[in-house]
Design brief:
By secondary structure, the chain is α/β, with parallel strands linked by helices. The protein has ten helices and seven strands. The chain has two domains: 231 residues, Alpha-Beta Complex (Spore Coat Polysaccharide Biosynthesis Protein SpsA, Chain A); 103 residues. 39% of the residues are buried.
């Protein structure tokens, strides 16, 4: 069984060497361990140091964001034939030596996806600013509510995916992927679990490119999550909007009607009659959109099933080819991930000698 550890890095030359050096050299149940560093347009020596450490490196010509970096890393690991994929950040906050603990539920067949949690075990809660802690708590509850599951930590990027779960996963957010991926996997019925792991609460070097501005991170994360809920739970999303509008319209009309029964007049609430009617019409329109969106969602499920089968065939064919290629061969970026911005040779080397 092959394990690919995908490390996301953007200007991490102060920490990338230490992170790579702490990756376990052997894990029970794993035959081969590969380290893949995704360099998201770094302008420092991140790429050079990663190559010096023997890691496989795929680079973006310019910074594209953590969500795009995640998609590139998952693609690189699947093309390399990984059976289990672990994602972690190159800033040193996620402990590589805890990889065996993180992937244990996958190797035991208990889950197809495992995410580290910083908050389920009180003894492992890291030191971090109170605002960050509150933001993580709020996002975990919002994400859990949207998924219909319970999470104590929805923002930690230290995660493990089975090959099947990684192929099923489709995320679109460029800024971040953590909450959207949970919702996508939950909707597809992938078995999931949380693993308590001690994780550093703040970076040792530099600032987080995702959460250094908590307000902006919150807005972006909520935007991505809202879009994900809209796309994956359309009837509930538009139906809830329609219900709120209908209740507002009904309340306005009931106010006018009650006043009429008591006084025989509609004044001074005549304006509520028109306003209530508008809200009722908008509510009915939103409910109609909910029905149409639910129909489109069913069509999307069929399309995603077809996409899954196509992706599985594509990556499985590449995995079989890899066994016959030497260490200098390169694999092209697949069409579903190509952006037109890749370097001339963006592919990950299959083996580092």
């Amino acid at each position: 069984m092959k394990l690919a550890i995908v490390i996301f890095a953007f200007n991490e030359d102060k920490s990338i060497g230490d992170v790579l050096g702490r990756i376990p050299t052997s894990i029970e149940g794993i035959d081969r361990i590969d380290a893949i560093v995704v360099d998201d347009g770094s302008t420092d020596r991140t790429r050079a140091l990663a190559l010096k450490r023997g890691a496989q490196v795929v680079s973006h010509p310019k910074n594209r964001g953590l969500g795009a970096t995640f998609a590139t890393g998952i693609d690189a690991a699947l093309r390399a034939g990984a059976d289990v994929i672990v994602s972690l950040d190159g800033d040193g906050q996620h402990p590589p030596e805890a990889v065996p603990e993180l992937i244990a539920p996958l190797l035991d067949g208990q889950a197809d996806f495992a995410t580290a949690t910083r908050f389920s075990d009180p003894s492992l809660i890291p030191d971090m600013p109170a605002a960050n802690r509150f933001g993580n708590w709020l996002m975990a509850h919002i994400t859990g509510f949207a998924c219909g599951r319970s999470f104590t930590d929805a923002a930690c990027g230290f995660r493990a995916y089975s090959r099947d779960a990684a192929i099923r996963l489709n995320v679109f957010g460029a800024h971040t992927y953590t909450q959207e991926s949970l919702l996508d996997l939950a909707r597809k019925g992938v078995s999931m679990t949380e693993v308590p792991i001690a994780i550093r609460g703040v970076r040792e070097h530099g600032k987080s490119r995702v959460a250094h501005n908590l307000a902006r991170y919150g807005v972006r994360a909520l935007t991505i999550l809202t879009r994900a809920v809209r796309d994956r739970l359309p009837f509930a999303f538009f139906g809830a909007i329609g219900a709120v509008l209908a209740l507002m319209g009904g309340a306005a009309e009931m106010t006018v009607f009650t006043n009429f029964l008591l006084t025989g007049k509609t004044s001074p609430y005549q304006s509520l009659t028109i306003l209530g009617a508008i809200f009722l019409i908008l509510g009915a329109f939103s409910f109609l959109i909910a029905l149409l969106a639910d129909m489109l969602s069913r069509m999307r499920e069929t399309q995603e099933t077809v996409l899954y089968l196509q992706k599985r065939r594509y990556y499985d064919d590449l995995a079989r080819q890899h066994t016959h290629l030497d260490g200098q061969q390169q694999v092209p970026v697949p069409p579903h991930l190509a952006t037109g911005n890749e370097e001339a040779s963006p592919a990950v080397p299959l083996r580092v000698e």
